Amino acid sequence: MAAPLSVQVEFGGGAELLFDGVKKHQVTLPGQEEPWDIRNLLVWIKKNLLKERPELFIRGDSVRPGILVLINDADWELLEAGWGQAAPGRQDGSPLLPPFLLEVLGPQCLQQLALGK
Amino acid sequence: MPAPRCASCHKARAALRRPRSGQALCTTCFCASFEAEVLHTVVAGRLLPPGAVVAVGASGGKDSTVLAHVLRELAPRLGISLHLVAVDEGIGGYRDAALAAVRRQAARWELPLTVVAYAELFGGWTMDAVARSTAGSGRSRSCCTFCGVLRRRALEEGARRVGATHVVTGHNADDMAETVLMNFLRGDAGRLARGGGLGSPGEGGALPRCRPLQLASQKEVVLYAHFRRLDYFSEECVYAPEAFRGHARDLLKLLEAARPSAVLDLVHSAERLALAPAARPPPPGACSRCGALASRALCQACALLEGLNRGRPRLAIGKGRRGLDEEGSPREPQPSGPPTSEPIPGF
């Protein structure tokens, strides 16, 4: 059982184009059964913040290759032991602990947007 | 899982792992390491000797922003002076915003800025006009073929105007690796042969060119810009970039996820290639119209413009150049691929 959690999410490097151009989002994740971790945070972001082209943001269980994710200013690959595409067997991320800043930088988004794919 | 300690200073928490070495570094040590690597690239390759007047291709994008920022930090140590050169392709809306970013940067860094416009250099042909001209031929993406070639020429011209001795562009390891993949996939031995190495020495009167960020992966460039809070322009060109590079990029990203050093390894492999004698391209001559380096009678830029001016924009695109009335047929054997150029992704 997870209590509501306050998280700051920032998009940059072009990723903000998928979120109506809004870079900073202060969100409160609702209380729920499962503890909040990166995986379900991403799902929540896709459902509640993402405005267009989900395929440019998410691929399978993780973000699309080329998109960078920072958790409290550190590369998530460092923290999550390569969670996501490099370790496809891994199911859960570490639980999110406040203070929590998620930053998504997405240079790869742009080329794909322009390609009209 | 808490972040490990920085492998360099052992004090701060690590922020990332460098792709090549796997070393975990904090933001401060990473930025220092990034800058030291660029310095080493330039010094070891003798790319920018003391006294060089360096024209920096500035698009306002992340690569050229990082390039200009780092070179500016290193300039006193290298004994070079910098001059920003921005190319205005004449793409309404998009380029204005990008140029505004470059102007902000020039003011903040106190660097001289020169803007060179396609309209002025190429007889009124802006990219918007080229796109309209090529749209009728059914393949709108071919306007990007023009842009890559013309932008290179425009940057060269801008560099000359400011009295530069060298030209630098912000191509990173990912750009280089994508180009290597594309050249392999298209069997373009000529470009594979020319593509390796850190810079072009400047044959045929062209200014020497190099890419100091060549050994930095795109991810590191983005993170460096992020940690240093650099202001850059991150929207993409309104005209669709060539589809093929997109495929190479996707493949590269998948490879990188499985093996982080793959990007750099690919670039190093290409540098070490030796072509079989039959595959080597013929020595280039000079363009009959403008004197620039060319492997045929007309250089790419002149051939493309000729097609545009005749109202037949696709004239110089593709494997042949029928109708251009060039002197002599292509030399036997024909090792090089089509005369098209992949759009160079930004500076």
TrEMBL record, chain A:
SUPFAM superfamilies: MoaD/ThiS. There is a cross-link at residue 82 (Glycyl lysine isopeptide (Gly-Lys) (interchain with K-? in acceptor proteins)). GO terms for cellular component: cytosol. PANTHER family: RURM1 PROTEIN. InterPro entries: Beta-grasp_dom_sf, Mopterin_synth/thiamin_S_b, Urm1. C-terminal thiocarboxylation occurs in 2 steps, it is first acyl-adenylated (-COAMP) via the hesA/moeB/thiF part of MOCS3, then thiocarboxylated (-COSH) via the rhodanese domain of MOCS3. Pathway: tRNA modification; 5-methoxycarbonylmethyl-2-thiouridine-tRNA biosynthesis. The gene is URM1. It is found in: Cytoplasm. The modification 1-thioglycine is found at residue 82. Pfam families: Urm1. Component of a complex at least composed of URM1, CTU2/NCS2 and CTU1/ATPBD3. Belongs to the URM1 family. Keywords: Cytoplasm, Isopeptide bond, tRNA processing, Ubl conjugation pathway. This is Ubiquitin-related modifier 1. GO terms for biological process: protein urmylation; tRNA thio-modification; tRNA wobble uridine modification. Acts as a sulfur carrier required for 2-thiolation of mcm(5)S(2)U at tRNA wobble positions of cytosolic tRNA(Lys), tRNA(Glu) and tRNA(Gln). Serves as sulfur donor in tRNA 2-thiolation reaction by being thiocarboxylated (-COSH) at its C-terminus by MOCS3. The sulfur is then transferred to tRNA to form 2-thiolation of mcm(5)S(2)U. Also acts as a ubiquitin-like protein (UBL) that is covalently conjugated via an isopeptide bond to lysine residues of target proteins such as MOCS3, ATPBD3, CTU2, USP15 and CAS.
TrEMBL record, chain B:
Belongs to the TtcA family. CTU1/NCS6/ATPBD3 subfamily. It comes from the Eukaryota. InterPro entries: CTU1-like_ATP-bd, CTU1_C, Ncs6/Tuc1/Ctu1, Rossmann-like_a/b/a_fold, TilS/TtcA_N, tRNA_thiolation_TtcA_Ctu1. It is found in: Cytoplasm. CDD domains: CTU1-like. This is Cytoplasmic tRNA 2-thiolation protein 1. Residues 316-347 are annotated as: Disordered. Plays a central role in 2-thiolation of mcm(5)S(2)U at tRNA wobble positions of tRNA(Lys), tRNA(Glu) and tRNA(Gln). Directly binds tRNAs and probably acts by catalyzing adenylation of tRNAs, an intermediate required for 2-thiolation. It is unclear whether it acts as a sulfurtransferase that transfers sulfur from thiocarboxylated URM1 onto the uridine of tRNAs at wobble position. Residues 54-237 form the tRNA(Ile)-lysidine/2-thiocytidine synthase N-terminal domain. Keywords: ATP-binding, Cytoplasm, Nucleotide-binding, RNA-binding, Transferase, tRNA processing, tRNA-binding. PANTHER family: ATPASES OF THE PP SUPERFAMILY-RELATED, CYTOPLASMIC TRNA 2-THIOLATION PROTEIN 1. Its EC number is 2.7.7.-.
